[in-house]
Write a structure and sequence with these properties.
Elements lengths: L1 H5 L6 H10 L13 H4 L7 E13 L10 E14 L4 E17 L7 H4 L4 E2 L4 E18 L2 E15 L5 E19 L2 E19 L10 E5 L2 E2 L9 E17 L3 E19 L3 E21 L3 E20 L9 E23 L2 E16 L4 E19 L4 E20 L7 H14 L3 E13 L4 E13 L4 E12 L1
Antiparallel strand pairs: 1-2, 1-21, 2-3, 3-5, 4-9, 5-6, 6-7, 7-8, 8-11, 9-10, 11-12, 12-13, 13-14, 14-15, 15-16, 16-17, 17-18, 18-19, 19-20, 20-21
Length: about 475
């Protein structure tokens, strides 16, 4: 902290809160805060922030066609953590976003990452309007050596287009978390349970006189449920799941920490016309383990390893023939499988007002479709270097900034497709997906923030940007600006 000393200044309470709640150190053992019992013990200071922000991104060519070539998403957000006493804390968040995603193609369904590959899709696509409401609230208390907490999260999304193909997706998602823990042997040992409920209504309409184009019921790796593609354009998704979490963290500034999370979710897709017709079921099981040691005394020091595995599989319903509007469900076949593995080793070193983080790891993504046999596999190694600094520029002004550089390099890939039997549009889509999935990526970003202290609150402004270079010769540019108050 020599710069603070040279200016003859001391860190204020506001400085301490800003560093504690926004600093890079929060990446160390951050998974434990998903347990509400431990979230309440994560911070010693209160911190609230109200902001208006705008996020912008543009790609020269879509890295993932289903997500589009970029977006402009203005939003307003308020978030708070209040330390009520040594024994209790509350936290919450409310946010509203209203913007646009540009050039979305091969996807007319909200939440592509969650429901992939079971989406409604067409070859035309377009710009998509996006509106989102988010709410979160939690409470934690301490009873002797026992820690108890609960948290609720709610999300409502509305995505639509006002030109053909006029997609519309309406999402409601509710998550409840309950946690309990106990202090023993200089550690907090805790368990948490999470339940999630998900629903989406999804449809596509055409108003133009020239007619309609097919809407495909996608089933993975360029396949479709051909029997119900074309004019079946109204879907309903329902599902959710559970998650179990175990954590251990030191009660003082130094010690080992660990995290284990197991999850299982299911998402059911059905056609909603003049009848209800089940199409697919997507199952997702995940496991994540984090182990490390940390010390926050004279220096911030931490090293930890993380392993995350996700298995996704999809069943297709076999629908029989019928002369009426009722179709018999004859059974299911497991046709789609996806295995994702990510491993990493992270080290952090610094002091209160500066930190440097280094991370290296490996990840693989394997997809396969049973018949006709298709495979798309990729694997990469990656590295990251990040740094941050907080500087007291004057008696009232605090400046903070961070920089990040990362690189992702391919180490293996495989593509096996029956291209001779595929439609040209599907061939083009798969080749595009494969080219960008196996590509190398260089990622650079930076952010600068200024906080000005008033008598009873603070003012802040933040500006950041980034650049991604893809080995396919394409580029991504991004920017984010925010202004607001802290209190």
């Amino acid at each position: 902290m020599p710069l603070f000393v040279s200016l003859g200044l001391r860190a204020s309470v506001a400085d301490t809160a800003l560093v504690e709640h926004t600093g890079l150190w929060q990446t160390v053992g951050g998974e434990a805060r998903q347990n509400p019992a431990l979230h309440g013990a994560a911070f010693s200071t209160s911190f609230s922030q109200l902001q208006a922000e705008a996020s912008w991104q543009r790609q020269s060519e879509a890295f993932v066609m289903e997500k589009g070539r970029g977006f402009l998403l203005p939003s307003a957000r308020v978030e708070t953590f209040l330390r009520l006493s040594d024994h209790a804390a509350v936290w919450g968040q409310a946010a509203y976003t209203n913007g646009k995603k540009h050039g979305v193609k091969w996807n007319s369904t909200t939440d592509f990452d969650l429901l992939k590959p079971y989406v409604l899709a067409d070859t035309l696509g377009g710009d998509t309007q996006c509106e989102r409401y988010q709410f979160e609230g939690g409470y934690a208390t301490r009873l002797g050596r026992w820690l108890l907490g609960a948290e609720m999260l709610f999300r409502a999304d509305h995505e639509y287009r006002d030109t053909d193909p006029r997609m519309r997706g309406i999402v409601n998602e509710l998550t409840l978390r309950f946690g309990a823990g106990r202090e023993a042997w200089q550690h907090r040992w805790a368990v948490a349970f999470e339940g999630n409920v998900y629903k989406q209504r999804n449809s596509v309409d055409f108003y133009r006189e020239l007619g309609v184009i097919p809407e495909y019921q996608m089933t993975g790796l360029g396949t479709e449920y051909a029997r119900f593609s074309g004019d079946k354009r109204s879907l309903h998704y329902s599902g959710g799941g559970v998650r179990l979490q175990l954590d251990a963290e030191p009660t003082k500034n130094a010690g080992f920490f660990g995290h284990l999370a197991l999850s299982s979710h299911r998402y059911h897709r059905q056609v909603v016309e003049n009848y209800i017709l089940p199409l697919t079921d997507l199952y997702a099981q995940g496991a994540k383990v984090v182990l490390g040691v940390r010390s926050k005394e004279l220096r911030n020091k931490a090293i930890f390893a993380a392993v995350e595995y996700v298995k996704r599989s999809g069943d297709e319903h076999i629908i029989g023939s019928s002369a009426t509007a009722s179709y018999p469900d004859l059974g299911v076949l497991t046709m789609y499988k996806n295995h994702r593995l990510t491993t990493s080793l992270t080290a952090l070193y610094g002091k209160t007002f500066w930190n440097v983080l280094v991370r290296a790891g490996y990840k693989s993504d394997r997809e396969e479709y049973a018949y006709p046999s298709r495979r798309l596999n990729t694997s990469h190694v990656f590295g990251e270097l990040s740094g941050e600094a907080f500087v007291r520029a004057s008696e009232r002004l605090m400046l903070s900034g961070n920089v990040r550089a990362a690189y992702e390099a391919r180490v293996g890939d495989e593509l096996s497709m029956p291209f001779a039997d595929m439609q040209p549009a599907f061939v083009q889509m798969i080749r595009h997906t494969y080219d960008f999935a196996k590509a190398n990526y260089a990622d650079f970003s930076a952010r600068l923030r200024g906080d000005y202290e008033m008598k009873h609150f603070g003012l802040f402004a933040s500006l950041g940007g980034g650049f991604v270079a893809c080995s396919e010769g394409e580029r991504q540019f991004s920017a984010r600006m925010a202004v607001g108050i802290t209190f």
